[in-house]
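Q: Joint fold for the lines below.
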Amino acid sequence: MSTTTPTAAEPTTPVGKAADYLDQRTKVGVLTKQLVRKVFPDHWSFMLGEIALFSFVVLLISGVFLTMFFEPSMALVHYENEHPASMQGQLMSVAFASTLDMSFEVRGGLLMRQIHHWSALVFMAGIVVHMMRVFFTGAFRKPRELNWLVGTMLMILGLLAGFSGYSLPDDVLSGNGLRIADGVIKSIPIIGSYTSYFVFGGEFPGEHIIPRLFTVHILLIPALLLALIGVHLFLMVLNKHTQYPGSGRTDKNVVGYPAVPVFATKMAGNFFIIFGVLALMGGTMAINNVWNYGPYDPSPVGAGAQPDWYMLFLEGSLRLMPGQTEIVIAGYTLSLNVLVPAVIIPGLLFTFLFVYPFIEAKVTGDKREHHVLDRPRNVPTRTGLGVAFLTAFIILALAGSNDLIATHFDMSINAITWAFRILFFVGPWFAFWITKRICLGLQRKDRELVLHGHETGRIVRFANGEYIEVHRPLDEHERWLRVNYEAHAPLEIEPATDARGVRRRGYKADRRWQRLSRFFFEDRVEPVTPSELEAAHSHGEHDELEPSHGSPELVSGSRSVEQEH
Amino acid sequence: MSANQNPQGPSGDLTPHDSEHGALVQADRFPDPGVHEHKPRLTDTDPRSAKRNERLIALLFVISALGTIASLWAYFAVRPDGTTEGVRLSTIALGVTMAISLFGIGIAAVQWAKTLMSNREYTEERHSSASSAEVREAVAVQFKEGAEDAGIARRPVLLGSVGLALALFPLTIAVPLVSSVGGDWNVSKFRHTIWGKGVRLAYDPSGRLIRAADLTIGSVAHVIPDVPAEERESHHWITEKAKAVVLLVRLDPRDLKRDHREGASHDGIVAYSKICTHVGCPVALYEQQTHHLLCPCHQSTFDIADGAKVVFGPAKRPLPQLPITVDDEGYLVAEDDFNEPIGPSYWERLK
Amino acid sequence: MKALAARRHHRFAPVVLLLLALLVTGGVYAALAPSPAQADTASTEDIETGKKLFQANCATCHGPNAEGTTEAPSLVGVGAAAVDFQVSTGRMPMQMSGPQAAAKPPQMDEEQTAALAAYVASLGPGPAIPTDEQVDAAEGDAAEGMALFRTNCAMCHNAVGAGGALSEGKYAPALLETSDRNIYQAMLTGPQSMPVFNDATLTPKEKRHIIAYVAEQRDGSAGGLSLGNLGPVSEGLWAWIVGLGLIIGAAVWIGAKSS
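A: Joint structure:
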C-alpha cells in the first residue's frame, strides 16, 4: 500500500476524510461495497429471527444493569430492609437479598429485572417462531443446512441460558426446579450420583451452585451465544437471504430492498419497537416476583410449581410418564420413569431437528442449491411432520400445565394426565395425517384455480334454462405462484442385481431410503403444465380462454355463451 | 444489481431446477412472468401526502424525545418509598415513559422507510456458494506443498508424538477442575440423614417440639429434626434439612391399613419423608379425606394410610417412613434414621 | 351444655360489652354486629331455631340428629366454627354432589347461620367461632406469616393464595377473596380435603400471622399487573399473547407494502 488510495481524489468532507483514514488502514471499503446496497427480500416472517436477535440485545443491556446489583453469593444473612414486609428479618442467601434489594431499593431495578425476564421469554418464543418459519418454508435446504444446525444449537443454548438465569435469585420456586434437575441427573445410569456432586459441589443444594450458575449464565453461555449468533448472521449474509416464490424470484437472483437505506431503517425501527414492547411489559406486568416465593428452603413448595414456558415440555414429559417403569437390574436401579421423559424424549426431539435437513436431502436426492422458499402446502409430508412435532411439543407443554388446566376448567388432574398420555401418541400422528391432507387439498385447489380460474359469483342463465357461473382466468403472476414448484417423486434405485445377476452391495440401504422416500413423496400433486391448461381449455370441460371467444373470461359449461359484455 | 424497471424476459433459463430434469419437463413449464411492475405509492405521487407523512414522522421523533424527558422526570420525581404501591408506581412510570421513548423512534423509522424512502425493488444476482474448481485446485496444491515443506509424510514419529502431546495436555486443566468441583465425592451421604434414635420432632419452621397429644385426627405437621436454633442458620443445615424434612399425619387408627415400615407409626401418627421418590420435590399436598399425599411438581400420589404406596403419577416407590414413638415427656421422637435413602432413585441406591 | 355456654359467655364478655356499648351509641351499627358475638350469646331459643333449620336443610344428608349418614359425615363435635365456615361461604347446604363442595353465595343470612352454628355446637364440644381480635390482620406479622404460609399452605393454595389443584377434580380455593374469619376457621376445622391445623400445630398467634400475610397479598404485586399470580405458566402465556402478539403485529405492519 502506498500512502494514499490510488484512485480516489483527496476527500474534502469530514465524513470523506474519516472514511479515507479508516480505509487506508483497513481496506474497509471492499467489505462495505458488498454490504451497503446488498439486497434483502422483505416479508414480515423474515423479521421473526429479528425478534430473537433484538430480545437478545435487550437481554444484554438489561443484564448488564442487573449484574451491577446482583451478588451471586450463597452466604446467609438476615434481611435488614423494611420492604417487602413479608421478608423482614428472614434468613436468606445474599443472592436472594440482593435480588430483593435491587427490586425495592434501586430505582428502576425492578423494571430492569422484569424487562430481563420478559425478554428471556420472548427471546425463546422468537427462536421458536423463527425456526417454524425456516422449517415450513424449507429454508434449511442446501446451502443452509449448516446454518440450521447453528440455529438449533442457539436454541439449546437459549434454553440453558434461561434455566441458569431463572435459578439465580435462589428462591423457592427455582430452587425446587434445581432439585428436579438434581433428581434427573441422579437418574443417569452409573455416573448419576457423581454428576450430581459435580454440579452441586457435594450434596444438593450445598453452597456452590449459585456462583457456578452465575458464571455459566453471564460468561460461558452468552459468549457461546454471541459467537454462534455471529456465525449465524455471517452465514446469512454470505448465502444471501432466501426469498418467497413469486414472479421474477429464482434460485439465481434475490429480489428486495437495498440494505441502505430501506432494510437498515426498517431493521432499526423494528429493534426500537421490540425494545418498546419489552419495556412496556417490564413496566406494567409483574413477572417472577420472588418475594412471593421466599428464599430457598428445602421444605416448602408452592402449587403451580413450574419452570418458564420453554422448559414446560420437560415438566410435562415428566408428569406423563407412569412410575411403573423404574426397574432394578442386578441390584442397580434404572429409573426409566425419569430417564425416558427427561433425557430420551428431549433427546429425540432435538435429534429430529438436527438431522431433518439431511434426511430430506437424502430422500429427495436433490443436490442443488435452493434460495426460493417452498410454500408449505407444496411439501405436504414435511409440513405434516413439522405440525406433528409442534403438536407433540404443545401436548407436553400443556401436560406440564395440567394443574392449572384442572383448576381453570374444573377438571380432574388425573383425567387430564390420562388424556395427555394417550394424546401424546395419537395427537402427533393425527396432526400429521390431517395436515398432509390439508396440504394436498390446497394443492389440488391451486390446480383447480389455475385450470379453471376464479369464481366470479356472476351467474348466467342460458336460453334453455341452464345456469352457469362465469369464471375469470388467473393473470400470469397469480398462475406462476401456483405452478412454480417441483413435486418430488420417490427415489428410483438401481436393481438388486446387475445385468450378470450379481447382487449389488448397498442395495438394502438403498431400499430403506427408497421406502422413506415413498413415505415422503408417494402422495403428491404435480403442478399444472401449459399443455394441461391447453387441454383443459380445448376439452372445454370447464372452459378456456381461447381467443376466438373474444373474451378474457372462462365460463363453466359445455358450450359458448353469450357474454354479458 | 439492477433496478427492476425492465423485468427480465420470460426466458427458459429462469425456470428453476432445470439442470437435472430433462428437456421434456423444461419444455412443458410456464414461463416466469418476471417481477411485478413497480407501482408508485400515494406519497410518490402526491406531494401533500408526502409532506403529511414527513410531519407525522417528525412528530413521532419529538414524542420519543418527550418520552425520554418524561422518563428522567419519573426517575427523579417518582421516588419509590419501598412499599408495594411505591415500587409499582415507580416501575410503571419508568417503564411506560421508556416505552414511549422507544416506540417513538421505532414507529417513526419504519414509517419513514415505508412511505418516504424509495420502495423500488432491486434484483441482485446470486452466485454459487461453492468456490470454483480452479480455486479448490489451488488450495489443494497449497496444502500439499505445505505438507511437503513440513515433511510430515517422511516423519511419522513426529505425527504420532504431536498427537499424543496435544491429546494429553488438556488433562492438566481438566483433572484438577473436575476433581475439585465435586467436593469430597462421597456419595454415600445420600444414605443418611440427621435423624436417629432419640432425635425429637419439631415444627418447621418454628422449631417448637411436638407432643403426640397436639395432633388431632386429620392434623398434619411439617417436621424437622430438633437441633439448636443457631445450628439452623448454616448451609450444613440446609443440606441436611433437604434430606430430613418429614410430614407428620395423624390418622384414625382404624383407617391406617399398614405402615411402610413395620411398627413405625405411633397411635395413628405416621411420619413419612417429604421428599418425593420421583425427582425430589417436597410432597406436601395432604388430602385429609382420602389420605392421599400429592406432589405439586409431577402429581405423584401416595396413600398415607396404605404404607405410602404410589397410587398415581410418575413415582415408583413408596415414601420412606421414619419410625417414631413418644418419650417420657410426651414428645414425639424418632426411633431410628430412615432405613433407605430418601428422595429420587439413583444407580447404586440398593448397593 | 349450659355450663359450656356460660364458660363461653365469660370468655367473650369483653366483646359483648363492647357490642353493648356500640348498641347504645350507634344502634344501626349494632344491628350489623359480626356473627361471633351472636354465636356466643347463643340462647336456647337460637338452638331451637337452629335445630329447625338443620332439619329442614341439612338432615337429609347429615341425619336427623347430625349423627351422619353414608352421604355425609357426622357433625357432632365439629363445633360452631365449622358450621359458620361452611354455611357463610355458601358451601353448605350443598346443591349437588361433586368432587368437592364449592363456595357460592350463602343461602342463609347471618342470623340463620348463627342459629345453625349454635345448634351444632350444642351437640358436642368443638372449635368456636374466632373473635375479631383473633383474626385481626393488623395484629399479625406478615414476615412470620410468610414463613408459616409457605411451609403449611402454599403447596396447595399457591405461594400467594391464588389456589391450586388437588387430585381427582378437587382443588384448594383461592384465598384472596376469603374473609379473615373464614381463613381462620378453615385452618381450625380442616374442611373437606384440607387437613386440620389445631391450636397446637398452628397457635392462634401463628394463625393470625398467616392472615396478615394473606392480607398483604391483597395489595397486589409490586411489579404491576399480577396476571393472576399463577407463576411461570401464565407468564409464558402472556409473553406469547402480549409480547409476541404485539411484536408480530408490528412485523406484519413493517413488512406490508405502503399504498
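Q: Anything notable?
A: Chain A has three domains: 1-35, 37-309, 439-555. The two ends of chain A are 74 Å apart (CA to CA).
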